Amino acid sequence: PTVDIFLLKNFEGINYDKRKTKIIHRLDNACKKTSFMFLRKELPVRLANTMREVNLLPDNLLRMPSVGLVQSWYMQSFLELLEFESRSPADSQVLDDFLESLTKIRNRHNDVVPTMAQGVIEYKEKYGFDPFVSSNIQYFLDRFYTNRISFRMLINQHTLLFGGDTNPAHPHPKHIGSIDPNCNVAEVVKDAYETAKMLCEQYYMGSPDLEIEEFNAKTPVKPIQVVYVPSHLFHMLFELFKNSMRATVELHENRKEGYPPIKALVTLGKEDLSIKICDKGGGVPLRKIDRLFNYMYSTAPSPTLHPSRAAPLAGFGYGLPISRLYASKETCSRFHLAGN
Predict the structure, then answer these.
(1) Which residue is catalytic, options 10, 156, 167, 243?
(2) Domain Histidine kinase/HSP90-like ATPase: where (predicted)?
């Protein structure tokens, strides 16, 4: 069977209770003014560094319309943030304007991932596949999307803490911005499964069931809870379930007794939390495993990006590579795929 595994590392010397206490302490000391003063310097620097790296891409890729659109978004956001460089943090109207600008910037960048993906597809269709160029693009996109994750995290924390917003994906009064000090892992697993199931049933008119099991070595009688960003965990699990469901349904489409279930095992040991997703989708040859994390590779047909519709990710080949970035870059974790 195909096995998808990722681990969340429990940092040495920091248990979950201590880490939770530190975050709450920082929240108590949080100040809208100091956050403003930090972000008005930090965010433009991050955008400038990203734009500089974009300009180092191959000229033929930079000529693609979708890449040019992404560049224009970054430039516009950069210029808007510069307007706050010399404005006074003592003025409450300035703080409100900054909050409003951050919300606009976040919304403007919502479709950066599929739009950049469309640019890569446009390049590949026009110029074909070049291993050397592909390697350079892979390196760039890893850095580009890692920077985007951290950029949005900073914006979300400010808008959620000081703007009175709620996280639309996982609203909860006890969340600290995007962070849940008591993230129930099994609940996020179920949530991601149900969302993937809905898409699967829309496309295939059916879906495999989920069997979930928990093993808590620390406190066996309690559900597994960790300090984490639920939306990021959801994203990783959702992509895994989409891949598992598609493989399972397509392999067993003529099976009379229904589809074999997808199994999820959530385990909390003394040092690590692991989430293991198993399916009977036929597996992936070991020689092809690395391709699954290549932005220029997808097992699904390439989609077309329509501005008036919700941007699709299936077929762009971005689900697993970006999921690995969420795991490895934020929590020193591993996102591992095993084939057969």
Answers:
(1) 243
(2) 230-326
Sign of the alpha-carbon dihedral angle for 198, 200, 202, 204: negative
10 is catalytic: no
| Nearest by Cα to 249 from 258, 257, 240 | 258
- Catalytic one among 242, 252, 263, 276? 242
Compute the CA torsion angle 143, 23, 274, 298 (nearest 10 deg).
Answer: -30
Asked if 242 is an active-site residue, the reply is yes
Alpha helix ranges (H) inside the chain:
16-28, 32-54, 59-62, 65-82, 92-108, 112-127, 131-162, 185-204, 230-251, 319-331
Q: pTM here?
A: 0.83
Quick check: is 201 catalytic? no
The tokens for 29 are 């000391």
- Contact of 327 with 334, CB cutoff 8 Å: yes
Catalytic residue, candidates 156, 239, 276, 280: 239
* 54-75 exposure pattern, b = at least 16 Cβ within 10 A, e = fewer: beebeeebeebebbebbbebbe
The catalytic position among 109, 158, 235, 263 is 235
Residue 271 annotated among the catalytic residues of the structure: no
User: Which residue segments constitute the domains of the chain, with CATH numbers given?
Assistant: 2-16+175-338 (3.30.565.10), 31-162 (1.20.140.20)
Q: 139-174: per-residue pLDDT in tens?
A: 999 999 999 999 999 999 999 999 865 545 445 667
The CA–CA distances, whole Å, from 222 to 8, 118, 186, 250 equal: 19, 45, 12, 37
